[in-house]
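Input record (one chain):
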Amino acid sequence: MEGMTNSAVVLADPASYAAAVEEAAQAAAAYYATGESTLDDDAYDRLARGIAAYEQEHPQEVLPTSPTGKVAGGAAVGDVPHTVPMLSLDNVFSAEQFATWTASLERRIGRPVTAWSVEPKLDGLAVAARYREGRLERLITRGDGTAGEDVSHASGTVVGLPERLAEPVTIEIRGEILMTTAQFEQANATRTEHGGAPFANARNGAAGTLRAKDRAYTVEMTFFAYGALPLPDSGELAAELAELPHSQVLGRVADLGVHTAGDTEVAPRTVAAVEEAQARVEEVAALRASLPFGIDGIVIKADLAADQRDAGVGTRAPRWAIAYKLPAVEKVTRLLGVEWNVGRTGIIAPRAVLEPVEIDGSTVGYATLHNPADITRRDLRIGDHVMVYKAGDIIPRIEAPVAHLRTGDEQPVVFPEACPQCGSEIDTSEQRWRCVRGRDCRVVASVSYAAGRDQLDIEGLGTTRVVQLVDAGLVADFADLFTLEREQLLSLDRMGETSTDNLLAAIDAARTQPLSRVFCALGVRGTGRSMSRRIARYFAEMDRIRAADAEELQRVDGIGKEKAAAVVAELAELAPLIEKLIAAGLTMTEPGATPPPPPGEEAGEETAGSTEGAPLAGMTVVVTGAMTGVLEKLSRNQMNELIERAGGKSSSSVSKRTAMLVAGEKAGSKRTKAEDLGVRIATPEEFAEMVGEFLPVDA
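The corresponding structure, as predicted from the sequence alone:
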């Protein structure tokens, strides 16, 4: 939850205040009219908070067009009256503000709140779906809270909002319409195929699509219910809904066949204490980056109907619910240029150079662009304002250009005509462009990578030395390192007898590295340190890995159909290099691993990758701080290897799934979080004793 902010634009005088009100009004009007806006969500929020702060200090200067205290900033339109006002939510930005709000609510109702509902704040468009005798009669946007816009024409494209309920009841179900990540990508592909500009983000895509009429194409959206209320002729259902806790109302809605967030990782959860609600907020925030839809916060509600009645509602928001806002994960900035980088396998990858912008607690200056076809599809141009997305540790990406902000001065992205690394031709037959020389284009990079600490760990073989060896014609791939002769090395500049002997000793020691390190050194696309360990532990021997087909590879945790096929193809391509490594005497087995049974045979008790009986079997283990004792010299990668050899699964972050934290000196925030979650904490010495039989020989 670090990096949260409630910062506001500072307005110093009446002129800046009036300009801010006008800017907010224009941005809100654009968003609620077409789904487009000149401001991203975070920028609008900061502007609105600045306006509210100025008005609090200067109440006599408040302008009638101010967004303060108005649903949708006062910009939304609609002519279909709501039976009950459809309000917004007030916001908090920190645990302290949340605690203050809950205390205020309990003072208002005169008793402790004993049940809180914690649910995701979905990043879409609020709507009300009216059902009469089980049939969908009308779909209405929130509008200004008192009346909304009829968008019933779009109901057929909304997943999770059935035309007919499971029971013939009369009810209004309220919820959020949004585009999932997959729907957003498909919507932009469809939109560009029909000559339209891509949506800037999924939220704007849903807002624009919901209102669109007479398009030559349709795109899909998804509905998530967050509440329900009776209509004037709901009969017995009205009395039932009036007394049900909010959590049970959501259950009733799901029983009617309407989609809720109940089947997602961030399903609504009812807790008894404020501390539990805060813990759930942090859990949902941690899951945000992996969700297939956008959230911009977490909503906490008093669950009991009596608490909600006694708390009441204000003109803009209910007093029994609050939105705990998360740091912005998308911002608008400018695309300054595109760099073309060549990877160690010859893949030519474009990278966006951005005007630096603060997102999710860090400064973003670059973003992934995937491939040239992606640039063309999104119609990106140098100088464009672009919507950039980043969440957690996810690499920032450009979602789309903000086309309506174009001035006409933007320039097309220039694609390379030759390999930027070596000048050779480019293979453009697939979406990901590649130098025709493939790995040979990046011999220095691939050899340096293979010699790295987390692969073969050849000390003294830095990039400068590798360049020397390649330029001298002594090394064409990293297998050639193992055939180097003393006289060849002594002939190179700055290679004396001592440095030559030390390098040869380090190269010789690399022959004893386990299969997982050797496989990682190959640099197979789609695999890294962790995946290489999993593959090595599953198959146990290099020959078995090479003999595996795509179906067998999919039995390894984390390998899907596409990745399996890619690994099989690349291993075939790497066959000559692997043969050279075998001839050079490198280790082609994984210590302690059990080979899989032959095809067609049933696995016995000791199956491939079996961890039964191992000291860490089934445990997720996190390591933090400086190790001491026999573990002192182990790198973090070596610690992860040790965990997996002992049957566990290594992880870099503490969560409720963590079984143990190995906490060394200066453990910091991970230790604090482990203590809060009740995770078992072990010292390096205790951990070493647990996994003693799996420790490296020299540890």
